[in-house]
Write a structure and sequence with these properties.
Keywords: Hydrolase
Strand content: 25-35%
GO molecular function: 3'(2'),5'-bisphosphate nucleotidase activity
Protein name: 3'(2'),5'-bisphosphate nucleotidase CysQ
Largest sheet: 5 strands, mixed
Number of domains: 2
EC number: 3.1.3.7
Shape: globular
Strand order of the largest sheet: 6-5-7-9-8
Radius of gyration: 17 Å
Number of helices: 7
CATH architecture of the largest domain: 3-Layer(aba) Sandwich
Order of helices and strands: HHEEHEEEHEHEHEEH
CATH class of the largest domain: Alpha Beta
């Protein structure tokens, strides 16, 4: 029986993650892109692809189905020995919305969940937004720096953090798969001001992102 889109997404991130671990600290971006491009060409040859690691094909704008992928999200962290906060993103956009997706954090090691009650907001380790600092001061939250958008989102999914807030810009491939996974887990996902996220746009740039527990959405937007 042929794989469903969801099954394919899960398999692709899992197998890409294993491949990345086997070649680390080599040119993971290139290796992962070649693998994912070949797999999608074989298993979904009629679909379009938007990837960080490939030239943009404008024909995707007229397509019904577009795979939005980041073969290695967190290249900086991947290159640093011992870091676990890098990820693989595979998502499917179909006729206006994300319909399937998966995120793998291949080097993740389980850690105890925090026992204190202060809200934990994961932010970029290199570009923590001033907006997040202001919110943290207002609600007495803790900012937790982390690498990949996928790793940050999965920290919220696993309950190790309460929210992921980003400002300063990112691309559709940075957030598409994390957003689908977050929504499937019952989390809130939107622009930082609460507006909806829109994918497969002519310019794949997204200014900001908020993923959080639903009850925090009104506080953080």
């Amino acid at each position: 029986m042929a794989e469903t889109d969801a099954e394919l997404a899960r398999r692709l991130v899992t197998e890409t993650g294993r491949l990345l671990l086997s070649v680390r600290p080599g040119d993971g971006d290139h290796v992962a892109q070649l693998f994912l491009a070949a797999q999608l060409a074989e298993h979904r040859p009629a679909d379009s692809v938007l990837s960080e690691e490939a030239p943009d094909d404008p024909r995707r704008l007229a397509a019904d189905r577009v795979w939005i992928i980041d073969p290695l999200d967190g290249s900086r962290e991947y290159a640093e020995p011992g870091r676990t906060d890098w990820a693989v993103h595979v998502a499917l956009w179909e006729r206006g919305d994300l319909v399937a997706g998966a995120v793998a954090v291949p080097a993740f090691r389980p850690v105890p969940r925090p026992s204190h009650r202060r809200i934990r907001i994961v932010v970029s380790r290199t570009r923590p937004p001033a907006h997040a600092r202001r919110i943290a001061e207002t609600i007495n939250a803790v900012l937790v720096p982390m690498g990949s958008a996928g790793a940050k989102t999965m920290a919220v999914v696993r309950g190790e953090a309460d929210a992921y807030l980003h400002a300063g810009g990112m691309y559709e491939w940075d957030s598409a798969a994390p957003v689908h996974v977050a929504r499937a887990a019952g989390l809130h996902a939107s622009r930082a001001d609460g507006r909806p996220l829109v994918y497969n746009q002519p310019d794949p740039w997204l200014p900001d992102l908020l993923i959080c527990r639903p009850e925090l959405a009104g506080v953080l937007t």
